[in-house]
């Protein structure tokens, strides 16, 4: 199920979403005291605020930028073209959040994609064959049979195998991880609570039954080893492997890459498991709907309110925040939607935190391979493997995640190796999406917006070279050359582009190292250990300070689970204050 999420020659455009979102708390004045303050108006922070306010906890959201949403935003970088500037696809948002916050009533609309994956294949310099995957299993099998009849027969069994694992793990996303510290060192009451926390984990193991060892291998092995057990066709394996490395500084040969694949097939849209879609109006529509729900319950939401530090009481407990202009906002609870690194290394005095905790936070793996390029074009890309119709209307494959340079997994591995040595990939992995194929409101008539999610690009270039405009444009030009090889005429159709390298993603969106997950989704940084061991339950060493962003369990993606879970934990504590 290959699909996802997510400055060189950038145009200084206005923010369409900013005009609609910044007034989510319209008319509200920032009070000097609340029950809870949320640092950062990303989607997880907004989810946390909505649940807290819905439970009667007076809550304020303080966002640094001029618009809400974090990485889930819509921005008009090129006049007339509305980009999902960072994250670009929806699936992982927990269905109970949509239901409990009534997000459809607050304007959320999603275009579900079917088919969802298109891989044109370059052979001897020509792209004549392609692989199209969708929800029609019979048609998908016919597509796979072009490359291997054996793989076509195996594919439904592979899907069923993954679905069983996803169903078993799904409940773990909606609760705090087992508190290992309380289990080993806590009071009797804390140990009993930890025991209750074990129940979802035990149920997951029981659901997998005798196949547990096979599923354990999926979580720990390189994804290539798993795919080699099922398939022989390289285009199919490479297409599926993209879900295992997307956004990760990892190769298909990296142990544990199988979990990242699972993370990207865990979602659902409109009751269809594993489906992905485009949000109407761009990804900012998700943030707008959540902010609207939070504001409807009474939350105060503000933009252009950067937080300088967490305000601490005489016993080291969180008592609110101090803004960069010196304004103090008191509160009993502080939830941070920022990364663990920003929260604990910049917003809290180091002497207030255990040295071992600070060391672990500082050593978190936040490497990112991603450069996101948003492109405005004056015509629909036409692929050699599936040329456009005469009328210029989008064809089924145009709505897909279009995988370029994915002819085999070794190509992906070589691209990864180049980035490990500080160089950008000479043949980068490219996931190309055209959301305007389903949502024509995103671009002027006849024009389109194109998202290029590319890797591998290192955060730091070899030899200390800066990611200056020359380096950014050189890489973007190389990406465009590869798109041109599959879709001649693409370069001539470009109206404008916005290049977001790892340092740019960090600077604009606060993503540490440019990492879209706030930290690697590797096994050593998941569940018990996210963000660090003994603090995986959203609480921190500072009483009253909680982590509610993607750096907390269960991780990144536009999921909302960290925000919902953190709000639940904070609410439990609030009731005992």
UniProtKB/TrEMBL annotation:
Spell out the family assignment given in the record's similarity comment. Belongs to the carotenoid/retinoid oxidoreductase family.
Q: Pfam families in the record, alphabetically?
A: NAD_binding_8 (PF13450)
What name is this protein filed under?
Pyridine nucleotide-disulfide oxidoreductase domain-containing protein 2
Superkingdom to which the source organism belongs: Eukaryota
What InterPro entries does the database record attribute to this sequence? Answer: FAD/NAD-bd_sf
